[in-house]
Amino acid sequence: MHPRKRQRKYASTMKLVGKLLARFRAEAGMTQVELALAAGVQEDTIASIEQGRRSLVPDLAETIDDLLDTKGALATAVDNMPEYDLIPLWAEHCLNMEHEALALSWYDNQVIPGLLQTKAYADAVFSNEIPAYSPEEIETQTVAYDWRKSSYSASEGGACVEIAAHPAAVHVRDSKDIEGPTFTVAPSAWSAFAAYAATA
């Protein structure tokens, strides 16, 4: 069942805190609108908390305690609420799955794009795949990093460049510093450069 369609596991705790807030607010002679303005939140937020439909978060509990002079009663109640009542309703289903999971996987967009990855970086990426790759499979995935030295290499055998041609990119490095940075271009750009270099 969708998390919004079912009763929260500890809904009674949220309602209890909501009733406390409503009682303290009424005794202080404040309306929901007045408390919301003083606390810097929307009126709907106060109404939802009082009705037990939204959790009272710790920071807001402390602010309201100060405003209503309740001597930390709301903050204490929030600190002792079950974990399920400290998260948004929409996230409860995810939290349940996380508690039952044997392993966690997630997508991160703040990583080095494939066209810019070194072989060492690619090895590390494939080593953390789930299901896990065997060493042989990792080598197969990164075998495209097969560097070739230019036929115009100097007699010393090191004063030149090396390339690793991939279907989606061409990597270029200094043969004298194979652990150093690489330069990456699209195959079409490399083909145009090679054609120009051949006639120069």
In short:
With 200 residues, the chain is of the alpha+beta class. 45% of the residues lie in helices and 8% in strands.
Number of domains: 2
Helix share of residues? 40-55%
Broad CATH class of the largest domain: Mainly Alpha
Strand sequence of the main sheet, in spatial order? 1-2-3-4
Give me the CATH fold name of the largest domain. Answer: 434 Repressor (Amino-terminal Domain)
The share of residues in extended strands comes to: 5-15%
Query: How many DSSP H or I helices?
Result: 9
Question: What's the order of the H and E elements?
Answer: HHHHHHHHEEEEH
Q: Main beta sheet, described?
A: 4 strands, antiparallel
Beta strands, count: 4
Instruction: Summarize model confidence as the mean pLDDT.
Output: 78
Overall shape: it is: elongated
CATH superfamily of the largest domain: lambda repressor-like DNA-binding domains
Write the CATH architecture name of the largest domain: Orthogonal Bundle
Low-confidence stretches at least 5 residues in length (pLDDT < 50)? 1-6
Radius of gyration: 31 Å
Q: What would you call the structural class?
A: alpha+beta
Protein name: HTH cro/C1-type domain-containing protein
Pfam families: DUF397, HTH_31
Organism: Streptomyces badius
InterPro entries: Cro/C1-type_HTH, DUF397, Lambda_DNA-bd_dom_sf
Structure description:
The relative contact order is 0.08. The chain contains nine helices and four strands; from the N terminus they run ααααααααββββα. The chain is an alpha+beta fold and 200 residues long. Helices cover 45% and strands 8% of the residues. Strand 2 and strand 3 form a beta hairpin. The termini are far apart. The protein is elongated, with a radius of gyration of 31 Å. The protein folds into two domains: 3-100, Orthogonal Bundle (434 Repressor (Amino-terminal Domain)); 148-199, no CATH class. It comes from Streptomyces badius. Residues 21-74 form the HTH cro/C1-type domain. This is HTH cro/C1-type domain-containing protein.
